[in-house]
Amino acid sequence: MSQRNSTIYWVLIVLLVWQGLGGTNLPAQNAASALSDPRIEERVDALLKQMTLEEKVGQLIQRTAFGGVTGPQAASSPMGEAAAKGEVGSLFNLIDPAAINSVQKAAVENSRLHIPVIFGLDVIHGFRTGFPVPLAMSATWDPALVEGASRVAAEEASAAGVRWTFSPMVDIARDARWGRIVEGAGEDPFLGSALARAYVHGYQGERLSDSDSIAACVKHYVGYGAAEGGRDYNTVDMSERTLRQVYLPPFHAAVDAGAVTLMSAFNPLNGVPTTANHFTLTEILRDEWKFRGFVVSDYTAVHELIQHGIARDAATAARRALLAGVDMDMVDGDYQSLVQQVRSGLVREAAVDEAVRRILRVKLALGLFDRPYVAAGFSPAGAPIYRGATIKPEYLETARKAAEESLVLLKNDAGAGGSPVLPIHADVKTIALIGPLAESAPDMLGPWAGAATSPKDVVTLRAALTERTGQNGIKLLYASGTDIWGTSDAGFAEAVSAARQADLVVMALGEDAVSSGEAGSRAHLGLPGNQEQLLEAVSATGKPVVVVLFSGRPLTLVAGVPHMAALLEAWFPGVQAGPALVRTLFGDVSPSGKLTVTFPRAVGQEPLYYNALNTGRPAEGADLSHRPGFGEDRWHSRYIDEYNAGLFPFGYGLSYTKFTYSAPELSIKKLSARALNEGRGSPLRVSAEVKNTGSRAGEEIVQLYIREQGTSVARPVRELKGFQRTSLQPGETKRAEFSLGRNELKFWNVDMKDIVEPARVTVCVGASSAEGACAEFEITD
Ligand code: BGC
Predict the structure, then answer these.
(1) Is the CB of 298 under 6 A from ligand 1?
(2) Each residue's pLDDT tens digit, 244-295
(3) What was the pLDDT predicted at 14?
(4) 261-264 and 294-296: which strand pairing?
(5) Which member of 101, 163, 336, 781 has the lowest number of beta carbons within 10 Å of its beta carbon?
(6) pLDDT < 50: residue spans in the chain
(7) Of 741, 705, 15, 40, whose CA–CA distance to 360 is shortest?
(8) Measured from the CB, is residue 777 less than 6 Å from ligand 1?
């Protein structure tokens, strides 16, 4: 930047900061109340009165800027010109603050009514600082950490001018074939709801109008995760009970937490595409939940109503989406036809007004009218914060902590000396690092890496291990062995030879980032390429093999696990992959993540999830030790060629230390359904003692599950209703306390009422969905 430009820039920044401090007319308030503020409503009314039909429809149009709009001259791009005419309500995929300010200037200064554009982006797991993928974040079971990471993302994104993220994705995913399982919090609605709230709070901050707050967009509404066969965009068919009981709760939690926007999904739901679904978008979202923000469609999803077969042309598609409750049309521009459709009487202008109202409300609540420009697009050193600038050390620290908490230790067998192979023993003098993911920086960032993240910031496992072994005087050998999807065994000999020379082998295996995420469905869930053969060849040396598994989903590992002395699921851990892994492998920190998705034994078990119904012929009690033929044990709900249970259950994860649990204690043994339904009566308190009986400090995720029997509809065999991450020193005991009240005990009953029913309730507290001591209580009339 020249001296003159730099001076102009600083003058601009000072002006903008000044405006930011004093220029807003709206008081500080949280997001939910901001959308109900009568002063906002007055401003919306005043604007609506002045707007032409074209200007109204312009607000409903969202365009992507992909690559074509850059720099301070962006105002003269077609996007800038459209903004000046009030023809575009939102732009996304723009991360250059100079371009954002330029387009914004066109909208605010040149358009007739000076309505600002809202700039959006997929800030999914970090903007500049690449955090672990959301599935990994869920394995931390740590809402405070998730909130902290989202805050970092909000601070970085807003500093570049992005005030709206298309996150969190809160789709429940029970099928590991579905690639987008990596983007969410796994299979459980209770955990999913807790994390949905954490994301919203993190993004939207204390006040939505703060310049470092960004609007959350909760997606994909709804049922997307239940795509048949795990194939992306596929049909979804489910009962209203399952929809309300399993798939809707995280959305509802996010709305209650103040989320100001939602994104409709691609899939049809019970025959009606979710982008034209009046039942979910209006009856549930607006009428029942009182949501006052706006809904944006997914990418070209409005136009796709034609492919779905419920619209024969773009105009019908637009009409159906708008009237169902989609306010903003992402990318395809079909909503432009609404001008004509209002004029010809096909669409009432009031329907357009309502959508405009919702969008303007959010823009006002964000403070965009009062502070339309980005003030802090540059770091103190003058480098653009969105690219190239150094990541703040405290952000890296949060990213490393997140990665550490997300690692799940799935196996840790005893080594030669009788003690577990991890953490790495002091007598290990040579380590062989083998595998195609040991130094693949882009893959560490995972799918949907932030627009401003850079593989250059990633510390790979190889880099971190090289540093650590150098400090410890350990010899490190390295061989990739094969490529991620490789089929040639040409590299096997080198890998085997490295293993032979080592005391311990660390293998970095798994998927690449593009194997999951959108349109990343897989029909086979084994290790890609010939990695399993590489594993077998290396383990045949007899050396202990520690597998660090990178993946965006559960994989089928039945054949591979016997060849592993230890297995650490690392997901895609983000920029701090290497340091987090090395600190864990060497025992500076004990693994503490737990699975939020069931690992299947075979693809044929999918969809597979712990909170299933029992059936009338459960496999429980059947002799599962052999393959049943005709006759004995055949007539159960089971496979004849596979167990029902997965390889690793929901909630599972080992530590370097050991935890024991006492039986749960209940404060009372009876609760009244009526009292709970009428909002009376105190909840039941459950507590259990957790003791660290090992010799190392560690963190345990204590989980509480219930099962209700005697109810009007079948209830799951187990349901998560409480969890706590707790840290324990060796020998230390802590009491974990939970409370079970109306919220935890109600469900959608046979009359489709969300109430507490009389039931016998089993409550279990333990280390996973398959463990724990249990107690019982009664819910009476
Ligand atoms: C995805 C959304 C994303 C949108 C915008 C779509 O293809 O389904 O999750 O937010 O693109 O990039």
Answers:
(1) yes
(2) 999 999 999 999 999 999 999 999 999 999 999 999 999 999 999 999 999 9
(3) 39
(4) parallel
(5) 781
(6) 1-28, 379-383
(7) 40
(8) no
Structure tokens at 375: 């003030």
CB–CB of 314/306 below 8 Å?
A: yes
**Is the shortest distance between the CB of 299 and ligand 1 below 6 Å?**
yes
What's the DSSP call for residue 247?
I
Model-wide pTM > 0.85: yes
Question: Which stretch of DSSP H or E encloses residue 556?
Answer: none
Q: Give yes or no for residue 233 CB within 6 A of ligand 1.
A: no
CA–CA distance, 113 with 86 (Å, rounded to integer): 8
User: Measured between alpha carbons, how far is 432 from 461 in angstroms, rounded to an integer?
Assistant: 12
CA angle 43, 255, 280 (to 5 degrees): 100
For residue 765, the 8-state DSSP code is E
The closest of 233, 190, 77, 71 to 769, measured between CA atoms, is 190
Phi, psi of 520 (to 5 degrees): -110, 40
Q: How far apart are CA 405 and CA 347, in angstroms?
A: 52
Which ligand 1 atom sits nearest the alpha carbon of residue 219? 9
Amino acid at 647: L
Backbone angles phi, psi at 190, to 5 degrees: -70, -50
Q: How far is the CA of 252 from the centre of ligand 1 (A)?
A: 21
Q: In angstroms, rounded to a whole number, what is the distance separating the alpha carbons of residues 254 and 277?
A: 20
**Which atom of ligand 1 is the closest one to the Cα of 263?**
10
Nearest C-alpha neighbor of 97 from the set 382, 454, 363: 382
Residue 291 has a pLDDT of 97
**CA 294 – CA 264 distance, rounded (Å):** 10
Ligand 1: centre distance to CA 69 (Å): 19
Chain centroid offset of residue 648 CA = 21
Spatial distance between the Cα atoms of 196 and 587, rounded to a whole number of angstroms? 31
CA distance 321 to 315: 10
> Distance, CA 213 to ligand 1 centroid (Å)?
21
Find all residues with CB under 8 Å of 480, minimum gap 6, and list them. 434, 435, 436, 438, 439, 491, 495
Do the Cβ atoms of 133 and 520 come closer than 8 Å?
A: no
Q: How many helices (H) and strands (E) would you count in the chain?
A: 24, 27
The single-letter DSSP state of residue 280 is: I
* Residue found under tokens 């960004």: 214
Contact 250, 188 (CB under 8 A): no
520 in Cβ contact with 179 (< 8 Å): yes
Longest CA–CA separation in the chain, Å: 89
CA distance 572 to 734: 32
DSSP 81-117: HHHHTT--SEEES---HHHHHHHHHIIIIISTT-PPP
326's tokens: 């989609």
Q: What distance in Å separates the CA atoms of residue 459 and residue 637, rounded to the nearest whole number?
A: 47
CA geometry: angle at 87 spanning 82 and 93, to 5°? Answer: 65
